[in-house]
Amino acid sequence: MVTLNRREFLKLGIFSLSYLMNCSAESDRNKKYLNLLINSTKKVIILGGGISGISCARALKDRGYENVTILEARNRVGGRIHSLSYKGSALDLGAAWIHGYKDNPLTPIANKLNLGLFPTDDNSVIALQEGIGLLPEELVDGYELAYENILDLAQNVRFPDKSRKEVIQSINGGFFDNPVFLSMYSAGEEFNTGGDATEISSAYFDSDGGFSGGDVVIPSGYSLLIDNLKNGLNIRLNQVVSSVNRVGNGFKVISNGEPIASDIVVCALPLGVLKSGSITFSPEISSKKKDAIQKIGVGAVNKIILEYPYVFWDESRQYINYFSSTKGKFSYIINLKSYLPFNMLCGITTGKYSAELDSKSDISNKNEMHSILKSMYGNSIPDPINSFVTHWSTDPFSLGSYSFQKVGSEPIHYEELGKTEPPNLFFCGEHTNEAYRGTVHGAYLSGLRVADEIKNTVF
Ligand SMILES: Cc1cc2nc3c(=O)[nH]c(=O)nc-3n(C[C@H](O)[C@H](O)[C@H](O)COP(=O)(O)OP(=O)(O)OC[C@H]3O[C@@H](n4cnc5c(N)ncnc54)[C@H](O)[C@@H]3O)c2cc1C
After folding, report:
1. Which of 40, 41, 411, 449 shows a CA-CA span of 20 to 30 A to 182?
2. Distance CA 64, CA 237 (A)
3. What residue spans of 204-310 are helical by DSSP H?
4. Which residue minimizes the CA distance to atom 35 of ligand 1?
């Protein structure tokens, strides 16, 4: 550990600089050491203890930065990763999947921890239609083929000022009146992007990438990854940051109304929070970044988990597709019994329907999902014995589920979101990583990027 007081640090800096200037042969290696010595004494404040803030702090600490503090508003870390402890197991109320486990940078961490990953299978599904009931598999296969044909055509029609809904409708006028197509779309693009069909950009809806190898979940809880990464970090919980002010060469961060001084600030707050204006910057951040904050979208995706005294659904399938005439309405229901020791179903809502439910009470949302299950399986199904409802788009510390390319936004806006405001105000988070936006790995990698940027910054 390197601890120097200010005087020692200045002396060392002046001595080392003049020494290093005269030693060109060794200079590269020496410069690295000097950089580390100088930087490791810098005080770094990271706003937000989600995976991006934690991965950034972890990488800085591993590189010798000792004076790194995370300020987290909630009484827990993890942000949109939230594994609720339940009867010796864990329920993931936010992120659940490691997408593309083969090359995903999170897989080695999960493997090191022996987390016992469970591969999910999108083809293990049954389909039920509102008012009709179970649909034969051949019929669903036929619909799927037609659906993919329409989306293939729509793929080639791209306008930055037109939404996916407008474009898809121009190709097939009845698409959004057909409960099957509508629900396939909600379970696909709305769930993947986090946006509503009326807002998703037809030009850039698919501008992100992925990894190979299928998707896996962590039955023992995603938060175990966070627990591993946060080991030994200095994290202050229940710290609600309200402003970041430049003072001299550094910053004064206001948290819970109290000033905290810092040399470097990393903003790892969600885009929804930045959009809300609940954090102010003095002087203001650049107009380009403000414009990007406004233009990139943040949507609503929520989960409702219901536990029943016994299983009344097809236990052998991992998913239920529910085809409703309301877009975003539980089009995707996960049979948690596939990998958890509970008789549980997890309903996913997306888009505007999800945002509507978000502002309603837990009881109302629980009843909504239960009544849908009754309409599918009959009135004789038992009442749920437990329920868990998320409100990601109204939660003041997320204000949205994840970012997406909204009508009017462009890739340059994602770039802007991740740019440093010089000197020394850095930005990470899923919304700063277009290639892997809206994912845990995207957020994780953005934290590593900022740690590199800090390390490479010459003061
Ligand atoms: C329902 C849902 C399902 C998802 N499913 C998946 C999935 O299966 N796989 C996947 O890869 N991704 C998934 N995601 C996306 C993934 O969870 C996020 O992309 C990722 O966790 C974001 O990490 P982050 O660090 O950028 O932000 P966050 O996790 O939101 O971290 C930001 C932190 O800032 C804190 N904060 C906010 N305001 C303040 C303040 N004023 N002062 C101090 N701290 C503050 C927050 O409390 C939070 O801890 C899902 C998200 C949701 C909502």
Report:
1. 411
2. 23
3. 223-229, 271-276, 287-295
4. 48
Homologous superfamily (CATH) of 43-78+224-295+411-457 is: FAD/NAD(P)-binding domain (3.50.50.60)
Counting from 1 in the atom list of ligand 1, the atom nearest the Cα of 403 is 19
Q: How far is the CA of 119 from the centre of ligand 1 (A)?
A: 23
Instruction: Round to whole Å and give the CA distance between 345 and 172.
Output: 33
Q: Topology of domain 125-216+298-389, per CATH?
A: Polyamine Oxidase; Chain A, domain 2 (3.90.660)
Q: What's the rounded Cα separation, in Å, for the pair 155 and 346?
A: 31
List the residue whose alpha carbon is closest to atom 38 of ligand 1.
397
Domain boundaries, the chain: 1-41, 43-78+224-295+411-457, 125-216+298-389
Residue nearest to atom 49 of ligand 1 (CA): 79
Q: Cis link prior to 423 (omega < 30° from 0)?
A: yes
Q: Residue 198 C-alpha to ligand 1 middle, in angstroms? A: 24
Could you identify the atom of ligand 1 that is nearest to the CA of residue 54?
Answer: 25
Alpha helices in 46-193 (DSSP H): 51-62, 107-112, 137-155, 164-171, 179-185, 191-193
C-alpha 446 – ligand 1 centre gap (Å): 13
Residue whose CA is at the smallest distance from ligand 1 atom 52: 94
Pocket of ligand 1 (CB under 6 A): 47-53, 71-74, 79-81, 94-97, 99, 239-241, 268-270, 273, 279, 301, 303, 392, 397-398, 401-402, 429-430, 438-441, 443
Q: Say how many Å lie between the CA of residue 342 and the centre of ligand 1.
A: 26
Tens digit of pLDDT at every position of the chain (459 positions): 333 333 343 334 433 443 444 444 455 556 556 666 666 789 999 999 999 999 999 999 999 999 999 999 999 999 999 999 999 999 999 999 999 999 999 999 999 999 999 999 999 999 999 989 999 999 999 999 999 999 999 999 999 999 999 999 999 999 999 999 999 999 999 999 999 999 999 999 999 999 999 999 999 999 999 999 999 999 999 999 999 999 999 999 999 999 999 999 999 999 999 999 999 999 999 999 999 999 999 999 999 999 999 999 999 999 999 999 999 999 999 999 999 999 999 999 999 999 999 999 999 999 999 999 999 999 999 999 999 999 999 999 999 999 999 999 999 999 999 999 999 999 999 999 999 999 999 999 999 999 999 998 845
Q: Indicate the length of the chain as a whole number.
A: 459
Instruction: Decide: residue 351, CB within 10 A, 0-12 exposed, 13-18 middle, 19+ buried.
Output: buried
